[in-house]
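Ticket #4471: structure output looks truncated?

Reporter: J.K.
Steps to reproduce: submitted the chain below (396 residues) through the standard prediction queue, then opened the result file.
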Amino acid sequence: MAAIRRPDRGDEWWVDFRYRRRRVRRRSPVQTKRGAEQYDRQLRQEFAEDETHGRNPFAGPPPTFGEFAERWMREYVTPNNRSSVQRSKHFALGRHLLPRFGRCRLDEITTAAIDRFIADEVQHGLRPKTVNNILSVLHTSLATAADWGLLRGVPRHRWLRVGDTRFRALSEAEELALLAHVPLGFWRAFVVFLLHTGARFSEAAAAEWSDLQVDQDTPVIRICRVGRNGIAGATKTGSHRTLPLTAELLSEIARLGRTHERIFPKPDGGMMNPASKMKYLHRFCRLAGLDPFGWHTLRHTFASRLAAAGTPVHVLQRLLGHTTLKMTMRYVHVDPATLIATAATIRHALPIPDPNGTPVVTRPPPRLPMEAISPVDFRSTQQKTDPLGSASVWSG
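Returned output as attached by the reporter:
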């Protein structure tokens, strides 16, 4: 073993050995002889793994997380993420991760260190979803460090369990009350646009008159951009979609004067921001006697209406512009009327008990043996009636 004590360093335990004819001297993280011997074995094994995977074993210790985070934001986040994601990652780093791990080397961010960080964040009152968002930034940054050869592996950690998120959707009575207190003109058209298309606020704010296609049997609007910080850019998923327009929505849009290339511009021609315009929605809620809610509630209401009407989930996914069905299912709400109707259906489907409490089960008629069925009769048993009432041959 190459574990030695160095009097010139206050009798600290170091490892000192040669690998590929080059001298390696490192301070042992555990200041005991046994700890230094174990560190020696660890370094030799890591050097061998580095050579196997094409890494330089003599590159030295990795940088601190603070040094790496600056490079990561510049070379990875800025070219690959949209501006809103860049801001959220910058906030997570500056507010939570750098104060805790900024001075730590990348290889010192272990599973135990992350678990302590999670416990402290929860103790400080952060919600599990917020902690998971911060952990996602940490995990992505460390994974990038591993891809760049600065880290041998990404430490494992546990994600906090998050309950089902409760989204609010307006009932029909609430929707009518809201629309009754939204003045005709710009705001009435904007609210109806969100309710009848399910578009995001940023998508509606960036919609242009050229996106409307009304000279066809089914008028539609093409959602192909969003507005962020007054700048039009790609949609959240980077895809385009086409949404049908209702007659009521077309009537509201027709009342607007075409003063700008955008359908819903600010008075000065700029692009609306949801935070700055929230006061108008809250004002309409107070006038209607409703608890204030956000713009996204109108999108949830759109999804809930279509789901209650029996719209297939994959169609709803296309209309909302989601990349996964899992995200679409979070938007689907079941209103009480649908639950009552479903309960009635279940009651009719289940056997009804007789006065003695014994369920009455209707037994199917006995099946005839195959040899007793003529070819014509056999074909007739394979027929069924489709929902339109015409007979169709069952294909199995």
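Triage note (M.O.): checked the attachment and the full token line is present. The first strand starts at residue 3 and ends at 6.
Status: closed, working as intended.
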